[in-house]
Predict the structure of Glutamine synthetase.
Amino acid sequence: MAQILTPTVQWQMRTSKYTGNASPITTKMWNSLVLKRKGTSKSSAKFRVCALKSGRGTVNRMEDLLNLDVSPYTDKIIAEYIWIGGSGIDLRSKSRTISKPVEHPSELPKWNYDGSSTGQAPGEDSEVIIYPQAIFKDPFRGGNNILVICDAYTPAGEPIPTNKRHRASQIFGNSKVVDEIPWFGIEQEYTLLQTDVKWPLGWPVGGFPGPQGPYYCGAGADKSFGRDISDAHYKACLCAGINISGTNGEVMPGQWEYQVGPSVGIDAGDHIWCSRYILERITEQAGVVLSLDPKPIEGDWNGAGCHTNYSTKSMREEGGFEVIKKAILNLSLRHKIHISAYGEGNERRLTGKHETASIDKFSWGVANRGCSIRVGRDTEREGKGYMEDRRPASNMDPYVVTSLLAESTLLWEPTLEAEALAAQKLAMNV
């Protein structure tokens, strides 16, 4: 992996001894990501320091402090407040000392940040208030330290435009939605890029690897690029308490996927956003750029999606397949509404090629990955189960997608005329 990060320079993995307490991923994983350079060449200050220091030098002493467990000395913890920035996809965070360990976000104080520096407020009235909404264990600092997912409000208590969680929580709080216990399983795809050239990891700079085929779930130095990052992220999410359920290499080399779920209601969005934050931090440590662009490389290469598996209590019970069909009918009638909310740049991905449906046409099918909505063979055979919305892009907001699915299938009712026409069209497409 080190040679891929800096393809023109040879690097050697550096190991160091450490006997103190550590968080679940910092000792072994971080040691494998701290590199020592052979020879001399221009590089970043970080790598020059590693090359010049050895034994119990500066880097090791800093590592000791980063891994230090402070719980024997103080009850205080560090809470990393995390929120979504002005683009609606960028994540921001800052740290705060809390007097004692907490178990629920209601025990944490509200905080504020400079919204004029994130594109979310004017300079003359820049204060944005963040409300703690969900907490996770901090896999970087370990101990009782926590990651805090927040949403953002004006000082008057109004949600700012990029706060999509507020609206989602209202939908998931509706009694009709609560009674149906909506489950979500989200498949987050992402691409790893080389830092300076912004070209996929493992690809020759300015060139292309062999065609797609051997890379999906592949193993080997010529097929798998970035496995250490994927594995580190997997373990970090488990440590944090994120409901991550699996991971795999994707069809395009340098592209990976992990799955989160099943999660109920608003938890799906909280878990995805926290998992994205952890992935950003790990790629930061590795010196690799994380991309959630839905089509990072034009041409005959797969894009990156965020397929969202969805079911309700009625779908999971006997006769659920008919409930799924009714939900699909509703989704067909609101196709344009969903597409407009399913991620920026998604039109470059949803072309009808590379396991996608056309962005302009709604379709569904059993075991068909070229449809808007896919229903599994097991669901068809058993007459109950779930469906997969394959339209969301990798950069979608999970609060928006999950709540929109719940709204369209549980709260919204089409007119009888529209329902009949949609049923007729869908029957012709299947």
User: Anything to note?
Assistant: Residues 2-66 form one domain. The CA atoms of residues 11 and 37 lie 5 Å apart. The longest strand covers residues 183-194.
